[in-house]
Amino acid sequence: MEEAAKRAGIHDFIINLPEGYDTVVSDGGKKLSGGQKCRIALARAFYRKTPIVLLDEVFQYN
Fold first, then answer.
1. How far apart are CA 57 and CA 11, in angstroms?
2. Which of 3, 17, 21, 40 is the 20 to 30 A CA-CA neighbour of 28?
3. DSSP type of residue 17
């Protein structure tokens, strides 16, 4: 999972959470920004080795 998070650019954010990768986020990730949600979704796709990933314009911003 860590490698997928690094590829998605969300690893540093995750390791700075109170419990790191074990941190429980609120229902629907209400306390996460839109960008953080997108990067987590991308990390999940990398982790699952999804053969096809469809990206929307929200992924055009760093």
1. 22
2. 3
3. S
Residue 56 falls inside a structural domain: no
Using alpha carbons, select from 34, 46, 33, 37 the residue that is nearest to residue 5: 46
Contact 7, 33 (CB under 8 A): no
Let me know if residue 4 belongs to a domain: yes
User: How far is 15 from 21, CA to CA, in rounded Å?
Assistant: 7
Number of residues that this document lists for the chain: 62
Task: Return per-residue pLDDT of the chain as tens, 62 residues.
Answer: 999 999 999 999 999 999 999 999 888 778 898 889 889 999 999 999 988 888 776 655 55
**Domain assignment of residue 17, given as a range:** 1-48
